[in-house]
From TrEMBL:
CDD domains xrefs: GH130 (cd18615)
Recorded superkingdom: Bacteria
Keyword Electron transport (UniProt): no
GO MF assignments: glycosyltransferase activity; hydrolase activity, acting on glycosyl bonds
Keywords: Glycosidase, Glycosyltransferase, Hydrolase, Transferase
Similarity comment text for this entry: Belongs to the glycosyl hydrolase 130 family.
Species this chain originates from: Candidatus Viridilinea halotolerans
Pfam families per UniProt: Glyco_hydro_130 (PF04041)
Keyword tRNA-binding: no
Name of the protein in its database record: Glycosidase
Length: 326
C-alpha cells in the first residue's frame, strides 16, 4: 500500500467481524451481507451463507453498535424455495436492503441462481421474519441490484447489472408497481482497456442519498493472468435523474490488501453489499465480503468521499446506449 493515496475507508481492527466459526449451525462460509439500521438503531446484517453444497441462503445477524455483540439467528432467515420460485434452484446471493418509507417495508433485492444463470429477485418485509416474494424482476443474466428508497417522479427505480453483448455495465430501470420494469438506461459503464474497472462493474451497496446527489460505491473487476481483482470506486448521480452521472473517480478507493481479503475461496475480492449511516449523518459502516469467505467492516465519511469526488472526479462518458455511435 502506498501511503500517498488518501485512505477513504478504514478497516476495523477486529476484522473479520464475522466468520463461519461464529455460526450456530453448520455452514461453509459467510460473506457479502446486506445491511440496514432498524427503527431502534440496531444494525441488521442479512448475511449470505454458503453451505457445503455450494448453495447460498441468507441469515440475519443483529448488533446494537454494528461492530460486535452480533446475535445470529439460529436458523436461516431467507431460504431458496425452488418449488415456488424455480429461479432459486441453486440458491440466493448478495442481498441489498433499502428501507422504503412509502411502503413501510424493507426491500430486499438479491441474486437468484438457477439453470438460466443469475437473475434479480425482489422481496418486501417489515420485520425480516415474513417476506412477500415478487420473484424474478430482471431475467438472467443480471445481478448487483438495489431499489431506490423512494419514487423518482412517479416511478420506482431499480439499479442492476445485466450482461449483454456490449459488456457488463450498470443500468437503471423504472416501474409503476415494482413488477413491470422499463425505460432501461445505462448509468455507468465498465471502462475497458487497462483500467482497474475495465472488465465488469456492478453496484455494491445501495446508493447513499446526499444533498449533492446519489453517492454510489461500485465494484470494478479487472481480469489478470492470475485471476480477477475486485476493487471499489465512487460515482455521484443526479438526484432527480439518477442515470445522469455527475462525477466518477478515476482511481479505486478500496481493494484487497489484507490476508483475509487476499486468501479465501475466491482471493483478492472486497465485495460490500451493505452500508449504514451512523447517527451523526456522516459516518459510514461499510460491510463487505472478503475473499468470499468472511465478513469485514470498514468505516468512511460521506463528506470525505464527496470531497474526494469533487477533487478528482469528472462526468462519465456513456457510449453503450449512444444511438449516434455506429
Ligand atoms: C461476483 C458475485 C459475488 C462474488 C464475486 C467474487 O460475481 O457473484 O457474489 O463475491 O463474484 O467471487
Amino acid at each position: 500500500m502506498n501511503l500517498h493515496y488518501p485512505i477513504l475507508f478504514h478497516r476495523h481492527q477486529d476484522n473479520p467481524i464475522l466468520t463461519a466459526n461464529d455460526w450456530p449451525y453448520p455452514i461453509h462460509t459467510v460473506f457479502n451481507p446486506g445491511a440496514t439500521r432498524l427503527a431502534d438503531g440496531t444494525t441488521l446484517l442479512l448475511c449470505r451463507v454458503e453451505d457445503r453444497r455450494g448453495h447460498s441462503h441468507f441469515c440475519a445477524a443483529r448488533s446494537a453498535n454494528g461492530i460486535d455483540g452480533w446475535q445470529i439467528e439460529n436458523t436461516p432467515t431467507m431460504v431458496p424455495d425452488p418449488q415456488r420460485r424455480p429461479e432459486e434452484l441453486w440458491g440466493i446471493e448478495d442481498p441489498r436492503i433499502t428501507y422504503v418509507p412509502e411502503l413501510e417495508r424493507y426491500a430486499v433485492v438479491y441474486t437468484s441462481f438457477a439453470r438460466g444463470g443469475p437473475g434479480v429477485s425482489l422481496a418486501l418485509t417489515a420485520d425480516f421474519r415474513d417476506f412477500e416474494y415478487f420473484g424474478n424482476v430482471m431475467q438472467p443474466e443480471d445481478k448487483d441490484a438495489t431499489l431506490l428508497p423512494h419514487r423518482i417522479g412517479q416511478s420506482w427505480a431499480l439499479i442492476h447489472r445485466p450482461v449483454g453483448p456490449t459488456g457488463a455495465h450498470i443500468w437503471i430501470s423504472y416501474s409503476p408497481d415494482l413488477r413491470h420494469w422499463g425505460s432501461h438506461k445505462v448509468m455507468l459503464e465498465a471502462r475497458l482497456g487497462a483500467w482497474w474497472d475495465a472488465n465488469k462493474i456492478g453496484l455494491s451497496p445501495p446508493l447513499i442519498e446526499t444533498s449533492e446527489g446519489w453517492l454510489m460505491i461500485y465494484h470494478g473487476v479487472r481480469h489478470t493472468p492470475a485471476g480477477c481483482l475486485y476493487r471499489l470506486g465512487l460515482a455521484l448521480f443526479d438526484l432527480k435523474t439518477p442515470e445522469k452521472c455527475l462525477l466518477r473517480g478515476e482511481n479505486w478507493v478500496f481493494g484487497p490488501e489484507t490476508p483475509y481479503e487476499r486468501n479465501g475461496d475466491v482471493g483478492y475480492v472486497t465485495f460490500p453489499c451493505g452500508v449504514t449511516v451512523e447517527d451523526d449523518g456522516d459516518t459510514l459502516h461499510m460491510y463487505y465480503g472478503a475473499a468470499d469467505s468472511c465478513i469485514a467492516l470498514a468505516t468512511g465519511s460521506i463528506r470525505t468521499l464527496l470531497e474526494w469526488l469533487h477533487a478528482s472526479g469528472r462526468p462519465a462518458r456513456r457510449t453503450v446506449d449512444d444511438r449516434r455511435c455506429q
